[in-house]
């Protein structure tokens, strides 16, 4: 996506983007930006600009078709427009089974771990604290190897995680339910107390894995509706992308070019 660099504009209030005969300036983009949180302000502004363009393309198409547009129910009218205009084929059984065979892991029961931990806090940029807490972690692990039943006691005394009130119990965890650096390590841990502290952005974790339930494939019949829903969503996204790019070409857009993710601008 390309957007006019607003910093290059002079003090005159020139439009930044034009959709047909409708223009959007920096103030319009600024008002829309809070609805599009992103890692950087520039990315949020790009998303805001794209959303303004997409909605205006749809509004102009709805007007051309004689559909009533009112500020109070724009979303309803635009949804009716898309339902009328988008041609989304229903996936057949053969397509569903092919998709399932090539994406079995997406439809499996994920790995689950029942975990306890003791969190020794240390900021990522505090080298002294991290070294001190690592050495404390090694000391606590030696004590736990000699007396595993002390885990609850040591969690209450040393952990800064709220789970210390439950003896460090985190319950059953599936992939993606903790910070990425710890999540990656947990997947490979065997049962029992891990031999060394594990690092995260919060400090060091002493980990005990009490149970593991490995990933379990599921039969097609059990996930058929999920497979069909996935394919339907993919087909809808493709149809919407092509539709918006066609409207861009027909109506004309200056100052911004919709990219392959144009359909994402409808999500707010």
Automatic annotation (TrEMBL):
Q: Which GO terms describe its molecular function?
A: peptidyl-prolyl cis-trans isomerase activity
> In this protein, which residues make up the domain named PpiC?
110-211
The chemistry this enzyme catalyses reads: [protein]-peptidylproline (omega=180) = [protein]-peptidylproline (omega=0)
List where this protein forms a coiled coil: none
Please state the Enzyme Commission number of this protein: 5.2.1.8
Q: Keyword Cell division: yes or no?
A: no
Q: Which Pfam families match?
A: Rotamase
User: Which EC class heads this enzyme's classification?
Assistant: isomerase
Q: Record keywords: Isomerase included?
A: yes
Q: InterPro entries per the record? A: PPIase_dom_sf, PPIase_PpiC, PrsA_foldase
Give the UniProt keywords, A-Z: Isomerase, Rotamase
Give the family this protein belongs to, as stated in its UniProt record: Belongs to the PpiC/parvulin rotamase family.
Listed name of the protein: peptidylprolyl isomerase
Question: Which species?
Answer: Pseudomonas flexibilis
């Amino acid at each position: 996506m390309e957007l006019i660099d607003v910093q290059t504009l002079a003090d005159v209030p020139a439009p930044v983007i034009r959709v047909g005969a409708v223009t959007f300036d920096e103030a319009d983009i600024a008002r829309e930006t809070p609805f599009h949180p992103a890692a950087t302000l520039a990315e949020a502004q790009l998303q805001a600009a794209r959303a303004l363009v997409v909605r205006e393309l749809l509004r102009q198409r709805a007007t051309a078709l004689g559909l009533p547009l009112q500020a109070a129910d724009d979303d309803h009218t635009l949804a009716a427009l898309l339902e009328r205009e988008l041609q989304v084929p229903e996936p057949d059984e053969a397509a569903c089974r092919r998709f399932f065979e090539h994406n079995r892991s997406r439809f499996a029961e994920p790995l689950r771990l029942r975990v306890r931990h003791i969190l020794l806090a240390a900021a990522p940029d505090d080298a002294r604290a991290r070294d001190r807490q690592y050495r404390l972690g090694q000391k606590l692990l030696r004590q736990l190897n000699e007396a595993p039943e002390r885990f609850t006691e040591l969690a209450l005394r040393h952990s800064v995680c709220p789970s210390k009130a439950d003896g460090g119990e985190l319950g059953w965890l599936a992939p993606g339910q903790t910070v990425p650096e710890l999540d990656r390590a947990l997947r490979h841990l065997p049962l029992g107390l891990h031999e060394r502290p594990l690092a995260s952005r919060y400090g060091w974790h002493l980990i005990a894995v009490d149970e593991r339930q490995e990933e379990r494939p599921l039969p097609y019949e059990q996930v058929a509706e999920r497979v069909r829903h996935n394919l339907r969503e993919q087909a809808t996204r493709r149809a919407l992308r092509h539709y918006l790019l066609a409207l861009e070409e027909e109506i004309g857009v200056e100052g911004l070019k919709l990219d392959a993710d144009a359909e994402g601008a409808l999500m707010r």
